[in-house]
Specification:
The structure holds 5 protein chains of 5 kinds.
Chain A: E1 4-13, E2 16-26, E3 31-36, H1 42-49, E4 57-62, H2 70-76, E5 77-80, H3 94-104, H4 113-123, H5 140-153, E6 158-162, H6 170-187, E7 190-194, H7 198-204, E8 207-212, E9 215-221, H8 222-227, H9 232-240, H10 275-279, E10 285-288, E11 291-293, H11 296-302
Parallel strand pairs in A: 3-7, 3-8, 5-6, 6-7
Antiparallel strand pairs in A: 1-2, 1-4, 8-9, 9-11, 10-11
Chain B: E1 16-17, E2 21-22, H1 39-45, E3 50-53, E4 58-61, E5 64-69, E6 75-80, H2 94-106, H3 115-120, E7 122-129, E8 132-137, H4 144-150, H5 156-159, E9 179-185, E10 188-193, E11 205-211, H6 214-222, E12 228-229, H7 235-238, E13 247-249, E14 253-261, H8 271-280, H9 283-290, H10 314-320, H11 328-337, E15 341-342, E16 348-349, E17 357-363, H12 367-382, E18 386-392, H13 394-402, E19 408-412, H14 420-427, H15 449-460, H16 464-481, E20 485-491, E21 495-497, E22 501-502, H17 523-526, E23 531-532
Parallel strand pairs in B: 1-11, 2-11, 17-18, 17-19
Antiparallel strand pairs in B: 3-4, 5-6, 6-8, 7-8, 9-10, 10-11, 12-21, 13-21, 14-19, 14-20, 15-16, 22-23
Helix pairs in contact in B: 8-11, 9-12, 10-16, 14-15, 14-16, 15-16
Chain E: H1 3-28, H2 33-40, H3 47-57, H4 64-76, H5 91-126, H6 131-143, H7 148-162, H8 182-219, H9 222-229, H10 234-259, H11 266-271, H12 277-286, H13 290-318
Helix pairs in contact in E: 1-4, 1-13, 5-6, 5-8, 5-10, 5-13, 6-8, 7-8, 8-10, 9-10, 10-13, 12-13
Classes of the chains: A alpha/beta, B alpha+beta, C mainly alpha, D alpha/beta, E mainly alpha.
Bound molecules: adenosine-5'-triphosphate (2 copies), magnesium ion (2 copies) and nickel (II) ion.
Chain lengths: ~300, ~525, ~280, ~325, ~325
């Protein structure tokens, strides 16, 4: 039994399909990175997994159950948000942010709370004296560490991290990523790591899922995916990443026309597009062990 | 008088500006049977048969030149003036009077002085000739005369074509009065002289503007824009001093203002309590402060001696003098005796142990009354009685007061040619209605069986000496019972400016009241006397 | 600076009113002098048309006026905060319904409603306070709702939910603390509004003329034609007292505004005063 | 470089706040040659934007330029009067801001935003100005019909392109680009960068390109300057930057970027946080975070040439 | 729910509530027109006359809900009835006399204070910290702290009574002929100075603050920086870029103010005897003139809703983002 099973998840906002037919699973202690272009539905997926948003179709199973009670779910699934400025309440102290989950999920009594808070701060590499400060007195990296500490206060099995480092300065990003890695190793916590920075997904290792236009179009081990991308979008994405070592390679295709409402969302930009692509969404096609993609061209290439 | 003098061509003087309308926008309604009609309807356009002049105490001829009572006091004969024409040129005659009175009799909902006598006492109305009207009453009620002759008369040839006189707005009035309508705007209107008027009138016309409140009126009067106005605060200082040669006022008094207690309520049913209250009141201060010293404190019967020469009994007044004079010690003693215990804080409790505190309500905007109420309240406070002054909208006030649901309020005694109406309101059981039923006259709800007999006798006689004797007895009852508490004599407010016109009535030339009062259309007596200033 | 001035004026006024029994031991109603006596040593601010000491009325009357204004401020703020927060937090149908009610209340003509209500209830400061609360909460509710709505979009609310907080607790412990300055500014504004609107009602005669307050002082001044008689002190004293109170609250509000909105707070200096300062 | 287009010398900017003056730009000197792309990188808050705004004198209170000169074609911009300053702006120095959504007036049609700058500086009529705007749109690959649109009706990439087109409206000699692609998706970023490169090749304007993404700079810039704590700490040609970067801070920065073809090596980032600008430590600002720091670092290191066309401010890497 | 049905629902619900309130509120007040009738006509009416008058006035004793049904059916036929206090003038005629003046006074004072206030606010924000900024907004604020009627009475007393510079009240004098002529226009203007001027004086502070606050927000936006970088002239930057954007939020408030022009001028009209609807409403309330009150309430609500609608529409025109 997987820790998390996402089955055929979909969400619409009015007419717009933000996420469609998303299915994936996560094991204990696994980091799964979800990458994709802006507006492809990454955050929407994350919010559905964190139960902040109700799915329109499909379901989310935690340890095989779709009906975990609210509080129990919260004690197992936590979330870290993109913006460390917005995710901490400017009116409350750091201590408050860490104490509340401890008390709510009975991880500590009121008496033990201060020590527990201090321990948490130390875990994420912060000075325990920060507990009495307000968020605006902390730097961005410190804030994001506090946000991570808050998620870890309840000792969750899964942390949904929605672009946890993209608002942080380059020099401190890596520290936060390393922290996540360490926590995974030490506590067997699983991460759903959302990002549009393919390099950092690869850095964390684990598996990677690529989203485009609401669909998960490719999945597989991060190293494999970044090395031998199968889906044309993944290829485009990787080619666009600035890479001083490799030198730039111009592969950009400008989108022409609106995104189609049927078929593969990538048709408008795809160099390999066929008529079939315009009418039907490609099925999941196995590329290699644990590596799959959804592209009609793929089947043909393999044939 | 009596004959039509040839009118001179209109003199080109300024219009006489008179304050009589309240409201920022005025509706064009000149129906004399509607209380919502414009002021000029009943005071400049349509005339009554005769006018009670309460300054001279005489009944002055208007459309009628005289009246006679039959020996049994049941038939009234009125002689009409010769040579009167309506403003459209049609001659005026007894048919018009007959028509007006019958119209009122047959059409319910018409407002007019004659309404009550027509419904209650009048038997038949006939016109033996063009200049005579004979009214037969069912019983001898001589005071009905004043109501009947005050009725404004309308032209038969016009009103017989009016479909519904109740909802008629009579936008282009045709009357016998000294003026006719010239321009009308919602903000005000102008009248010009009626060239066919039966008397000589020099002023070319009247101008009437609407004002929203007393302050606006005061401001207009004080800035000299008005020729004829009403109340001016502290007139010597604010008004006369500005232009002593031209600014004048004259405030004759015709009725008293009373502190009215609801005699159906527990402590107020006791005359001793009413008298105790009365003795606690600082009437001199009311006159000084609310009336700038321009009036007098009330006498014991609540009738101004000026207005009723010869009617008041000096011995009764002397007898009652004590009860209407400030004597705090006596008031306190009387309250102690009546069982009003005084607490440590100086406040009393009623014999039932409740706080001696009541609401004294006055209509919003009645500035002099509100001011007086303030003084009543502080006076009573000296004796340990609390009177909370509350101002309420007039309709709220009237429904509370006339419905008998008030505790304390102020009221004005009825004015009249004789004290009959006043005492009827004050003492007659016929005017007492059960609480909840509307009573506009006797809202203090006091009745006295002995007074009833005296009032009946009064009405049945037309002999003035006899009436005066009966009036003395009524005064005696009043002083003994003190149904309401007289405070001070209410002036008939009036102010005028002689820059443009002279000839206004004044203390030196007291030919008529100065106040313009829709109930007594004495302004008709003034118009002919006004002359352009030099 | 502005807030300090505002606070100081307010403190002096409030103290004077609190100390009324010491400053004017005879009470406001004692009518001991002649009408409209000009200011003198015996009567610092002269006497009114009733022969009462204007200074005594001012300090005693301030108690009623300030109490009334304060209760209206607190009352409307409470209702507005409650309604606004509930609407904003729960959103959806609840918000839809509450907003509808709020908008309808906003379209109901305020002043006429006040007059009708004031005529309906027994006159007095309590009635005026009630009437102003009934008619005054809607705008605040809309304001608080808008503010709370924008806060609700912020991630820390989602974070609190993820932590497992219950809705009411999120509102009380996470949303509310961020709204204090808005609420305080609104409270100030409401107190000012109540002070002027309340005195307007009293001035119109819809109050209780028997109780001394700044509004009824103006009512009496008008009733006794004080201005026309040249007794400006009876009129100007209460008017100025109201204006000073309202003005000082407005100054406080100004400062609170700056506290809410950091952009209003930045240090002075003309906008484009980027001077070039060079050595030598 | 005598033939420099822009020569900034000894420029200092302070923010004078309640808590004291923060020196956001500290005695900075650099030059931009005609047609050159100078990349400026550094951590958040190191003063990049302040420097960018100081050049066309766009800083607002409480910022104060306390020293230095900004020479553009021989004139010192800091000495110009208001009218002359306005006439230089955009016609000689144009700008592209980080977030085009915010930089375009939301209530004005795109066409008018082109037209007002064209008309202000050239005196062309409205119709002619719109014609010119249409040309510019075609140049950056936007359908000229879009000139009738409001900014919010365009996608993020289109807005950024439009901002670029507006910047080129008067064919300026220098375009300052302050993180023009940071808000965009990688794919879009690539697209815009290619657009910029192509246009520059055609029109020959110089660019001061600001970003915090060194990888990007290495791809697009001719020379790279690294800023730290208000100062420029290293300046070198882009071509060999990866290998030749000498300053410990620059090296730290480079070590903070995971790359798509690195294999499993652990990156460390730079521990610690940047110095306070209000009360900066004496000497080298990076000393507190530097592994090579020694006593010498208490004195400000000179900005010296350590290799041809390569300068750095560090005692440890000096010649 | 999408925007359009929601707006429609709002207007329907607001209309229904207004009509219901219009009917019941006046009838909940203490006192009734019948007693007032008795009081006013004391002694001049018999009981039968009174009944006849009550019938004519339409004051029936039927249960309230029945009266409400009658009222609704009349309303649907567009019948607003006759005024009781000005009986038998139709309500529409009574309102007709005040409508124009209220509109004139209201629009002039609201637009003037909005315009002046916004300009002061914009300039203060642009020159933040200058002497102008440290004087103008606080002064405007302090002027706005005076109770309105206090200012108005003081102005009336000083300008009209004491110095006699301006007319005492009303909308125009007797000596001019109403119509489209210069003399009348000048006279109307002279009569407008005090009422409108006092309203402007006390209401300007709010607009100043509003504009200053939103403007300061806008000044921080990148598009302002870009406008300056473009070398545009200062008036263009302040006008087309800063003020144009800053005015948007203020605009909704302007709508609210304009919507209230028929309701909010009671004190002005009382003090200056101005022949508008505010004073009529006050009179209607104090005389229990139900039909007039109902019609005025209806007018006020409808005008608020209409202005709301107009603001919605205008907002769409002014702010392309909400289209
Ligand atoms: N609350 C919402 N209402 C309407 N549309 C929404 C809402 N939230 C997201 N969307 C739309 O759904 C789509 C997916 O959005 P989402 O935020 O999940 O994308 P994302 O992959 O996280 O993008 P980014 O990288 O920019 O954060 C977008 O087109 C977005 O506009
Ligand atoms: N208006 C201001 N008042 C005070 N300090 C300011 C102001 N604007 C910027 N600063 C400070 O000046 C320093 C430089 O800011 P600047 O915006 O130039 O940095 P940056 O390098 O552009 O950063 P980023 O990469 O985040 O855009 C920062 O420390 C900042 O806190
Ligand atoms: Mg996202
Ligand atoms: Mg920057
Ligand atoms: Ni009839």
């Amino acid at each position: 039994m997987s820790l998390l099973d996402v089955e055929n998840l979909g969400r619409t906002f009015g007419e717009a399909h933000a996420v469609r037919e998303a299915s994936f699973s996560l094991e204990r202690g696994e980091i799964v990175a979800l990458v994709g272009e802006s507006g492809s539905g990454k955050s929407t997926t994350a919010r559905m997994v964190a139960r902040l948003l109700a799915p329109t179709t499909g379901r989310v199973l935690l340890e095989g159950s779709a009906t975990v009670p609210e509080l129990a779910y919260r004690s197992k699934v936590q979330m870290v948000f993109q913006d460390p400025f917005g995710s901490l309440n400017p009116a409350r102290t750091i201590g408050h942010h860490l104490t509340r989950p401890l008390l709510l999920h009975r991880r500590a009594t009121r008496k033990q709370a201060p020590q527990a808070v201090a321990a948490l701060l130390e875990t994420v590499g912060l000075d325990p004296s920060l507990a009495v400060r307000h968020p605006h007195e902390l730097s961005g990296g410190q804030r994001q560490r506090v946000a991570i500490a808050r998620a870890f206060a309840v000792e969750p099995l899964l942390v949904v991290a929605d672009e946890p480092v993209s608002m942080l300065d380059v020099s401190i990003r890596i520290g936060v990523l390393n922290l996540m890695e360490r926590l995974r190793d030490e506590r067997e916590t699983a991460f759903l790591y959302i990002t549009h920075d393919v390099a950092s997904a690869r850095y964390l290792g684990g598996r990677m899922l690529v989203m485009y236009g609401g669909h998960i179009v490719e999945g597989g081990p991060a190293r494999v995916l970044t090395g031998e991308p199968a889906h044309p979008y993944t290829r485009l994405l990787l080619a666009a990443v600035p890479n001083p070592r490799r030198g730039s390679s111009s592969t950009v295709t400008r989108p022409t026309g609106p995104r189609p409402s049927t078929g593969c969302p990538f048709t408008a930009r795809c160099p390999l597009v066929t008529d079939l692509c315009r009418t039907t969404m490609p099925p999941v096609t196995r590329v290699a062990d644990g590596h799959w993609a959804r592209c009609h061209a793929l089947g043909k290439e393999n044939q | 008088a009596g004959t039509t003098e040839p009118q001179k061509p209109q003199s080109q003087g300024p219009l006489l500006t008179i304050i009589a309308e309240q409201g920022a926008t005025l509706a064009r309604n000149f129906n004399p049977f509607a209380a919502t009609s414009r002021w000029a309807t009943r005071n400049a356009l349509y005339e009554p048969l005769m006018i009670w002049n309460h300054v001279t105490g005489t009944l002055e001829p208007s459309l009628a030149t005289g009246h006679t009572w039959s020996a049994d006091n049941k038939t009234l004969t009125l002689t009409l003036r010769e040579g009167v024409t309506w403003s459209d040129g049609t001659p005026f005659g007894s048919a018009d009077v007959l028509f007006t009175l019958e119209l009122m009799r047959t059409h319910k909902g018409l407002v007019g002085e004659a309404a009550t006598p027509l419904a209650q006492y009048v038997d038949t109305i006939t016109a033996p000739d063009a200049k005579t009207v004979v009214i037969a009453l069912r019983e001898a009620i001589t005071p009905a005369l004043y109501d009947l002759v005050s009725q404004r008369i309308v032209p038969k040839h016009i009103w017989e074509k009016v479909a519904d006189p109740v909802t008629e707005t009579n936008q282009n009035p045709v009357g016998t009065g000294p003026f006719v309508l010239s321009t009308f705007r919602p903000q005000g209107y102008e009248l010009k002289r009626n060239d066919k008027y039966w008397q000589k009138v020099e002023i070319p016309g009247l101008r009437l503007s609407g004002y929203t409140g007393q302050d606006q009126i005061n401001a207009a009067v004080l800035s000299g824009q008005i020729d004829w106005g009403a109340v001016v605060p502290d007139p010597d200082k604010t008004f006369v001093a500005k232009d002593p040669a031209n600014h004048h006022y004259w405030w004759p008094r015709t009725a008293d203002v009373n502190l009215v207690v609801n005699t159906t309520l527990k402590p107020f049913d006791d005359p001793a309590v009413r008298k105790a209250f009365s003795m606690a009141l600082d009437r001199a201060r009311m006159v000084d402060i609310a009336l700038w010293g321009k009036s007098d404190v009330a006498n014991a019967v609540g009738l101004p001696s000026q207005a009723y020469p010869g009617w008041l009994d000096e011995s009764v007044l002397a007898e009652g003098k004590k009860t209407v004079t400030l004597d705090l010690a006596a008031a306190n003693a009387a309250l102690d005796a009546a069982g009003f215990a005084k607490g440590a804080d100086g406040k009393r409790t009623t014999p039932d142990g409740k706080p001696a505190a009541w609401d004294l309500i006055v209509p919003t905007g009645w500035t002099d009354w509100i001011s007086v109420a303030g003084i009543v309240s502080s006076s009573l406070a000296q004796a340990g009685i609390t009177a909370n002054v509350k101002t309420v909208g007039f309709d709220n006030w009237s429904s509370t007061v006339y419905g008998g649901k008030f505790q304390l309020t102020l009221g004005a005694g009825k004015r009249g040619a004789t004290p009959y109406g006043y005492f009827r309101d004050m003492l007659s059981t016929a005017t007492v209605k059960p609480v909840g039923e509307v009573s506009t006259n006797n809202f203090h709800r006091y009745g006295n069986a002995e007074a009833d007999k005296l009032l009946t006798a009064f009405a049945a006689t037309s002999d003035e000496a006899e009436q005066k004797r009966i009036a003395a007895d009524l005064q005696r009852i009043y002083v003994a019972e003190l149904p309401t508490i007289p405070l001070y004599e209410q002036p008939d407010w009036g102010a005028f400016v002689t820059k443009r016109y002279t000839g206004f009535p004044s203390a030196d030339n007291a030919y008529a009241p100065l106040a313009n009062d829709p109930l007594f259309p004495t302004t008709y007596l003034v118009y002919p006397k006004l002359k352009a200033a030099r | 600076m502005k807030s300090a001035a505002g606070g100081a004026i307010l403190a002096v006024l409030a103290l004077a009113c609190l100390a009324a029994p010491l400053l004017a031991p005879d009470g406001p109603a004692a009518a001991t002098a002649g009408a409209f006596e000009a200011p003198s040593a015996a009567h610092w601010l002269g006497t009114n048309g009733q022969g009462q000491d204007v200074f005594a009325q001012l300090v005693w009357g301030g108690r009623g006026s300030l109490l009334m204004a304060l209760s209206v401020g607190v009352g409307t703020t409470l209702v507005a905060v409650l309604v606004g927060l509930l609407a904003a937090y729960f959103g959806g149908l609840a918000d839809e319904a509450i907003s509808l009610v709020v908008n309808i209340v906003l379209t109901v003509p305020g002043l006429p409603l006040i007059i009708v209500l004031a005529a309906f209830l027994p006159p007095g400061p309590a009635t005026i306070a009630m009437v102003l609360i009934i008619t005054g909460w809607a705008f605040g509710a809309r304001l608080i709702r808008a503010q709370a709505l924008s806060l609700r979009q912020r991630d820390f609310i989602a974070a609190a939910k993820v932590a497992g907080e219950r809705p009411l607790r999120v509102i009380a412990a996470e949303l509310l603390p961020n709204l204090w300055s808005v609420i305080a500014a609104y409270l100030c504004g409401q107190v000012v509004f109540a002070l002027t609107a309340g005195s307007a009602l009293e001035f119109l005669g819809l109050g209780d003329a028997g109780q001394t307050s700044w509004g009824t002082m103006l009512f009496w001044a008008q009733n006794d034609s004080a201005l026309l008689q040249g007794a400006w002190w009876t009129f100007v004293s209460p008017g100025l007292a109201i204006a000073l109170t309202a003005g000082s609250l407005a100054l406080l509000n100004f400062a609170l505004d700056a506290a809410t909105n950091p952009r209003l707070r930045a240090p002075g200096g003309a906008r484009r005063a980027t001077e070039v300062l060079r050595h030598g | 470089m005598a033939d420099a287009l822009l020569a900034v010398e000894d420029l200092s900017v302070e923010y004078r706040g309640l808590r004291g003056a923060a020196r956001a730009v500290d005695r900075v000197s650099f030059e931009v040659a005609p047609g050159e792309v100078l990349g400026l990188a550094g951590e958040s808050g190191c003063g990049k934007s302040t420097l960018a705004l100081a050049i066309p004198r766009l800083l607002r209170a409480p910022a104060v330029i306390t020293s230095g000169s900004v020479r553009l074609g021989g004139r010192d911009i800091l000495e110009l009067d208001d009218r002359r300053l306005r006439s230089i702006r955009w016609s000689e120095i144009a700008m592209v801001f980080q977030n085009a959504m915010n930089a375009l007036n939301p209530v004005m049609r795109l066409g008018s935003q082109f037209a007002d700058v064209i008309r202000t500086h050239t005196g062309l009529g409205r119709a002619r100005a719109l014609e010119r705007a249409a040309e510019l749109c075609t140049l950056v690959g936007i359908d000229p019909a879009r000139l009738r649109s409001y900014p919010h009706e365009l996608s993020g990439g289109m807005r950024q392109r439009a901002a670029l087109a507006i910047a080129l409206a008067l064919e300026p000699k220098l375009v300052i680009m302050d993180e023009p692609t940071t808000a965009l998706d990688v794919v879009l970023q690539r697209e815009i960068m290619e657009e910029i490169t192509a246009l520059r090749e055609r029109l020959g304007f110089a660019v001061l390109f600001i970003t915090h993404d060194i990888s990007l700079l290495i791809e697009v810039a001719d020379r790279i300057a690294i800023m730290y704590g208000g100062r420029i700490v290293e300046q070198a040609p882009a071509r060999s930057f990866l290998e030749s970067a000498a300053h410990p801070y620059t090296r730290g920065l480079l070590a903070s970027f995971p790359s798509i073809d690195d294999d499993g090596e652990r990156l460390t980032g730079i521990p610690g946080s940047p110095p306070s600008l209000i009360d900066p430590p004496a000497g080298c600002g990076f000393a507190a975070r530097c592994t090579l720091a020694s006593d010498r670092c208490r004195e400000t290191p000179p900005f010296v040439e350590i290799a041809p066309a390569h300068r750095a401010a560090c005692w440890e890497v000096g010649a | 729910m999408s925007r359009l049905p929601r707006r429609v629902l709002f207007y329907l619900a607001a209309g229904a509530v207004a009509v219901t309130l219009n009917f019941f509120l006046p009838r909940l007040m203490p006192g009734d027109p019948a007693t007032t009738l008795v009081a006013t006509y004391s002694g001049q009416l018999t009981a039968e006359d009174l009944q006849a008058l009550r019938d004519a006035y339409g004051l029936v004793d039927a249960p309230l809900w029945q009266q409400f049904a009658t009222y609704l059916s009349h309303l649907f036929r567009g019948e607003l009835g006759v005024s009781l206090s000005q009986f038998p003038t139709p309500v529409t005629e009574v309102i007709g006399t005040g409508f124009g003046w209220s509109l004139l006074l209201g629009l002039v004072s609201v637009l003037l204070s909005f315009a002046i206030g916004s300009v002061i606010g914009a300039v203060a924000a642009w020159r933040r910290g200058s002497r102008f900024d440290s004087i103008a907004p606080p002064v405007a604020l302090f002027a706005g702290s005076f109770p309105y009627f206090f200012m108005a009475l003081l102005a009336l007393y000083l300008f009209a009574v004491q110095w006699q510079l301006l007319p005492l009240g009303q909308a125009y004098g007797f000596d001019v002929e109403p119509g489209l002529n210069a003399a009348f226009a000048a006279d109307v203007l002279a009569h407008l100075v005090l009422p409108a001027g006092t309203v402007v004086l006390v209401s300007i502070g709010g607009w100043v603050l509003n504009m200053r606050n939103t403007m300061i927000g806008v000044l921080d936006e990148d598009y302002l920086l870009m406008a300056e970088a473009k070398g545009l002239s200062t008036p263009r930057v302040v006008g087309s870029y800063a003020a144009r954007n800053a005015i948007l939020p203020t605009f909704t408030l302007l709508g609210l103010s304009i919507g209230n022009v028929f309701a909010g001028q009671l004190l002005t009209e009382v003090v200056f005897s101005y022949p508008g609807l505010g004073y009529q409403l006050y009179q209607a309330v104090t005389t229990h003139d139900y039909p007039l009150m109902q019609a005025l309430f209806l007018l006020i609500t409808v005008s608020i809703l209409v202005v709301n609608l107009l603001v919605d529409v205008a907002y769409v025109l002014l702010d392309p983002r909400v289209r």
